[in-house]
Structures are given as structure tokens and as C-alpha cells.
């Protein structure tokens, strides 16, 4: 039987040293990256075999195009299902949209057990106080604007027995049953001496507390301060101009 010159035997080593047979060819050395690619290719090929699918090298052009169409359809379907789920989640969260009246009996269920992830805004008020009426008007519009937040109101003494009118209006912000923020008394809703907060300013207060996700980019109070400063400067300019005119007449 003929000797295989490529075998690693002692006799072949002697023959190579004598030049009788050629030196054994060096085996190719693979880089780590090439080895990883080889392993990945082998795994993918095996997975294709297990699933009964053909390897790309074994497919016709028509078969490859059909497969790509199927893959595109799968991606579209996955995206559609994902968006539908997101819409369902939004609809589940957007289940409020108005200001509900509650009493002490409703407090635990409506506030402390509002649900996972639910923000609650509760306004304690009295009909006789103008600022309470103003806040209720604001909150009604904000409730429609932010339907993912639960807005509640209650006549103070109907919710908390003997709650003093001097502490009104009172607004509590809860998240998952925990009190996050509170505003008590008229001073908390006064933007400037003799001026109550605007609807936008109340929205900003709730936004900073985390109860709503407002699209406002800055505190509306800063606009009020800028406008007030401009008015004062204009008044001073008018007064100065008037004084100068009086001096010229003299």
C-alpha cells in the first residue's frame, strides 16, 4: 500500500528531511473574527436545515425574492401588533377626562386605590369661595386635556369632617396612593398681589408635580413678570416724558 506523503509519520519526516518527498503544506491560520464567522455560518445553516428551509446558495432568484417578501410582511405585522398594543395601553390610561365629585366614602377607592401608575388630582372646595369656583373651571378643562390623570373634587367638609374654610382652596396630588404634592390656602394660588393663577399657571404647577405632561416649555408666571416689568417701564417712560413736556412749557 502506497504511503500517503501528507501523513504525520516518523518515516515521512525522514523522507522530507532527505528531500525525497515535498515539505508538508502549511495549514491556513484563521483569525478570531474569521472563526466567529465560520461558527455563525454553521449555526445558521444547521438552523435552516432543522426548519426545513433551503440555504440561500441553494435557492433560485424567485425563491429568494419570495422569502424576502415574507420577511417584510412579518416585520410589518410585528410593527402593526406593537402599535395596536401601544394604542390599547393609551386607551386604558385615557379613561378619565372629567372632574368627578366624591365624598368621604369614596376617598379610599378613588384616591388610595386609584390603580398602578395613576395620578390623582383632588380639589377640596366650598361653593361660597370665588377662587374655588375658578379652580373648578380650570380643572374641568384640564381634565379633558389630560384624560390619563384622574381629576376629583369634593366639598371639603363632605370629604374631611370639620375641614376649615380658611385652608381652602386645597389641591392634593397623589400617585399610586401616595401624597406627592399639596397646595393649601388662597396664597398658594396667588400669582401676584391681587391676582390669582391663570389656567396655564395651574397646568404648570401640576406638570411640575408630575400629575400631567404639559407641552408648556416654561413657567407662565415668567411671562406675567415680563409683562408687568414692561408695563412699569412704559409707565415710567410716559411719566418722564410728561415731566419733560411740563418743563419745556415753563
The largest sheet is:
5 strands, mixed
CATH class assignment of the domain at 99-220? Alpha Beta
CATH architecture of the domain at 99-220: 3-Layer(aba) Sandwich
Shape: rod-shaped
Strand content: 5-15%
CATH superfamily of the domain at 99-220: Glutaredoxin
Number of helices: 8
Main sheet: strand order: 1-3-2-4-5
- Could you please say which CATH topology of the domain at 99-220 applies here? Glutaredoxin
Q: Please estimate the helix content.
A: 40-55%
Taking the alpha carbons of the first and last residues, their distance comes to 137 Å
- The whole-angstrom Rg is 39 Å
Structural class: alpha/beta
Q: Element order, helices and strands?
A: HHHEHEHEHEEEEHH
Low-confidence stretches: 228-238
* Record field, number of beta strands: 7
Mean pLDDT: 78
Short description:
The chain is an alpha/beta fold and 250 residues long. The chain has 8 helices and 7 strands. Strands 1-3-2-4-5 form a 5-stranded mixed sheet.
Q: Can you offer a commentary on this structure?
A:
With 250 residues, the protein is α/β, with parallel strands linked by helices. Among the domains are: 57-93; 99-220, Glutaredoxin. The protein has helices at 10-18, 32-51, 61-93, 107-112, 130-145, 156-159, 199-209, 220-249, and strands at 99-101, 119-125, 150-155, 170-175, 178-184, 190-192, 195-196. A five-stranded mixed β-sheet has the order 1-3-2-4-5. A two-stranded antiparallel ribbon has the order 6-7.
Amino acid at each position: 500500500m502506497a504511503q500517503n506523503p501528507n501523513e504525520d509519520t516518523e518515516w515521512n519526516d525522514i523522507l522530507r528531511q532527505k528531500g525525497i518527498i515535498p515539505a508538508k503544506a502549511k495549514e491556513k491560520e484563521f483569525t478570531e473574527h474569521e472563526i466567529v464567522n465560520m461558527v455563525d455560518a454553521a449555526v445558521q445553516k444547521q438552523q435552516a436545515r432543522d426548519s426545513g428551509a433551503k440555504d440561500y446558495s441553494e435557492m433560485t432568484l424567485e425563491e429568494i425574492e419570495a422569502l424576502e417578501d415574507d420577511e417584510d410582511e412579518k416585520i410589518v405585522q410585528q410593527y402593526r401588533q406593537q402599535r395596536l398594543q401601544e394604542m390599547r395601553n393609551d386607551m386604558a390610561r385615557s379613561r378619565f377626562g372629567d372632574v368627578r365629585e366624591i365624598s368621604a366614602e369614596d376617598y379610599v377607592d378613588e384616591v388610595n386605590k386609584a390603580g398602578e401608575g395613576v395620578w390623582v388630582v383632588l380639589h377640596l372646595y366650598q361653593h361660597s369661595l370665588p377662587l374655588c369656583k375658578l379652580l373648578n373651571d380650570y380643572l374641568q378643562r384640564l381634565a379633558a386635556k389630560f384624560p390619563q390623570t384622574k381629576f376629583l373634587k369634593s366639598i371639603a367638609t363632605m370629604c374631611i369632617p370639620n375641614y376649615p374654610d380658611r385652608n381652602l382652596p386645597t389641591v392634593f396630588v397623589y400617585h399610586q396612593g401616595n401624597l406627592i404634592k399639596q397646595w393649601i390656602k388662597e396664597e398658594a394660588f396667588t400669582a401676584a398681589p391681587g391676582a390669582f393663577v391663570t389656567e396655564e399657571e395651574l397646568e404648570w404647577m401640576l406638570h411640575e408635580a408630575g400629575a400631567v405632561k404639559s407641552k408648556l416649555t416654561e413657567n407662565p408666571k415668567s411671562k406675567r413678570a415680563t409683562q408687568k416689568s414692561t408695563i412699569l417701564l412704559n409707565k415710567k417712560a410716559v411719566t418722564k416724558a410728561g415731566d419733560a413736556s411740563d418743563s419745556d412749557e415753563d
